Amino acid sequence: MPEKTLNVNVGVLGHVDCGKTSLVAAMSSVLSTAALDKHPQSKERGITLDLGFSSFSVPMPEPLQHLPYDELQFTLVDCPGHASLIRTIIGGAQIIDMMVLVIDVTKGFQAQTAECLVVGEIAARSMVVALNKTDLLPEALRPKAVKKATKLIRETLAATKFAGAAVIPVAAKPTPSGISELQAWLVAAAVQQHADPAAAQAAAAAAARPFLFSIDHCFPLKGQGTILTGTVLQGSCQVNDTVELPALKLTKQVKSIQMFKRPVTSVTRGDRAALCVTQLNAKLLERGLAAAPGTVPTFAAAVAAVDKVRFYGGPVPSKGKYHMSIGHATVMAEATFFGLPDAPGSSQADALRLMIDALSKTSLHTQADAFDWSKQYLYQEELYGLEGRPITSSSSSSTVAAAGGAGAVGAACSSGQQQHFGPQWVLLKFDQPVTAPEDSVVIGARFDVDAAGEACRLAFYGRLTGSLAEGGPQQLRKLQVYKPKERQGLVSRIAPDATSAVCSGLFKKETDISIFQGARVVTGRGEWGSIEGRFGTSGKFKVQFDAPLWGVGEGQQQQRSAADNVLLLRYKRFVFDADKHSIRQ
């Protein structure tokens, strides 16, 4: 039996009852302890309830024979399709390299098909569509029906990362067909992935990082210990190494390792394996992580770079509660969205390209860019998709005034409304502390909105870029997210020297104007000045201008219009400032 195996993890996803498990059975030659619906309730209900693992192997293809392996193994991860089990699908997605999206040819694209596609875009580098149950079509109508279904699928995929993906007609039973073609596609895709320099570089970098193992099953084995089955996400592990179970705050020594019932001495990134440890109560851990000691933190809040899911129909508002899936865990969190200020926006085409690039980097499991805590960010009432964020009139006019009336910000849509396109982030305040790698993939969902699963419930996705251990006010203060504010008043009486004026309309008589002392203001003509302080008791105040106001002087008083005398005060209120009355400009 070959000693060295190159393993590729293939996620098999699709809507409930599309025939995934039957297809996996037709492709598999080796079954794990959790394969083909061995769960008792799976047998009882006739649907997949948990992740299933099986595999098939082929000799090393000629283009890969220079690698130090004897065979190419495909581990098939059979994911549940029922709407209520999407959390399990998301948990399984973090370990896959490529994906088979199974679609029932008699039903086409369904609600959970869209959710599976979203998960696949995040996790998988490449995808093939298995158009299943073609044997149910009348033989005479089969070619036409398959052609029509293929066309509709390709139209749906056109705006996704998997545009142009192969569609292979298959039938799992009673007489399997298309199976060899599907396996051949997987082999070709594996060759292509390993020939990709970016993928090779990412794999080498991940292999060099600290050990991280995704546990999907945990059970006792009499006379041996407790078995942790899962997939190596990064790094490597050898027999006798010490690993930490971060969720339990325990460390254990690895007694032995197996790969599909075959003893091995070590495992590395991408390997599907079973680790045997001793003196661990298997009931304490169903799913989770094993890691190099001290490398997986626990935190109460985090920042993630995110994008909106294109298939999600509703708004994604700030201050809303979302089901956040991080690895195998799903916890509730309050979300606060923010982005760059309006001026540095890009085009819609750039935004789409950047989104696809970000998905590709995520599926390569490259390390996420660290969050820049030194920058200031604009608070957003909601997360925006490819439609862009509307630019506020105050942002636009402020930029124009500062530039002397020239230039535009962002891009204009067909209706003439200016839009901002740029990166977006979210602050997640978890209802309970989360234990996860600091660059974990996150998926935000509203599972409570459509329990029947008739619509896509996945709202946004992204990568963690920074964490806050406690998430309290003291720590949140370093996150500089602001809301732009604007007040409009009038230049009421200009002094004879034209460099100062009494103004009104910005404040009520009870306002503490000292908060705004020194704040910069601008007239409708773009003339800048600073607030000096209160004038009288009615809310009026005095402004000292940088230069004499235009149109003031002997014979010029009538030259200033009402628009010229409009006075604007623009400032920022920082969402997480301890002093809610402080302002910054």
Automatic annotation (TrEMBL):
<feature type="domain" description="Tr-type G">
    <location>
        <begin position="5"/>
        <end position="194"/>
    </location>
</feature>
<dbReference type="Pfam" id="PF21208">
    <property type="entry name" value="euk_SelB_III"/>
</dbReference>
<dbReference type="InterPro" id="IPR000795">
    <property type="entry name" value="T_Tr_GTP-bd_dom"/>
</dbReference>
<dbReference type="InterPro" id="IPR049394">
    <property type="entry name" value="eEFSec_C"/>
</dbReference>
<protein>
    <recommendedName>
        <fullName>Tr-type G domain-containing protein</fullName>
    </recommendedName>
</protein>
<dbReference type="InterPro" id="IPR049393">
    <property type="entry name" value="eEFSec_III"/>
</dbReference>
<dbReference type="Pfam" id="PF00009">
    <property type="entry name" value="GTP_EFTU"/>
</dbReference>
<dbReference type="Pfam" id="PF21131">
    <property type="entry name" value="eEFSec_4th"/>
</dbReference>
<dbReference type="InterPro" id="IPR050055">
    <property type="entry name" value="EF-Tu_GTPase"/>
</dbReference>
<dbReference type="InterPro" id="IPR009000">
    <property type="entry name" value="Transl_B-barrel_sf"/>
</dbReference>
<dbReference type="InterPro" id="IPR027417">
    <property type="entry name" value="P-loop_NTPase"/>
</dbReference>
